[in-house]
Please model this.
Amino acid sequence: MLILPNLATMAKPHSPNLLQALRHALWRREHWTAIAIGLLAAPSLPVIAAPPQAWARTPTTNTLIKQDTAAPPVPTRPVNLPAPVTPDDSGIIDLRPSPSDDVGIGQLRPTLEPDPDSSDSSSGASWLRDIALPVYPSPESEPWGWIIHGWLIPNNSSPLAIGRDAAFSMVRTGQPLYTFPVLELRSDGWFRFQYTPAGVAWAHVTHLDLGTVPLAIEPWDISMKDAAQVEFRRPGLSQPMRLEPRSTAPLQALVGPNSIIQPLDLDGDWLRVRVTQPAQGCMPLPGSSVAEGWVRWRNEADVPLVWFSARSC
Model:
């Protein structure tokens, strides 16, 4: 199994050296602009079908989309495309970012809602079976290949089955859904996303609906609000919970590390939560209490201070 190279460092995406590097690879933010595009998106996602001109703003998501730039043409799909295959989740590395890791501006995800009781394209990484996305080393380069039907297919090279022949790194933002962190989104529609521990690729928002399951870029504030459970990224420290969503509001309580934190609402950089503490895993301990209040979920640099819990209570 391969962990794949960083496409953004590939100067000549079609060279034999690239393909050799792929075969022998070893294991191993403009201020965010919220955007989501997908022609067949589920209503619960902030998804916009882009009209051809000018700028558009949606009052519900405060989304800016620059629509007057030329979209790249859709590359030719790989010839002799293999039958769709469901990625092997054993080859998906669960990225659990440390407090210092850059988690970008949001996530690249399918527009279908995950079903915990289903093994179809809405759960795990199996949604990769039903997408088609051309990927690039940079916005100025020729396409490098495709992520398509559960395969990674470099140009002029053999298909690699995701999770079996090629390891991917993804984040688990909802049980049991795996998604890609989007590190950067430009106003011309190009976005950069992480797909291995050290590897990134570029794609364009006009290519998000080329598969049977369309994709969307969902900003972290939407994701955090809809999360079943979150935890602070700096473990072991108690965090203030306030009566109102501002730093000068009265302190309501300190949220300890052994807590169940469930999001209820969002106001800018603040998340209203229901906190049960103390708890052991998903089990409240004797004498535990439940309180609701506001915690800061991201700092002044738009870096998330909380992350999605590895457990779902």
Notes: The longest helix spans residues 16-23.
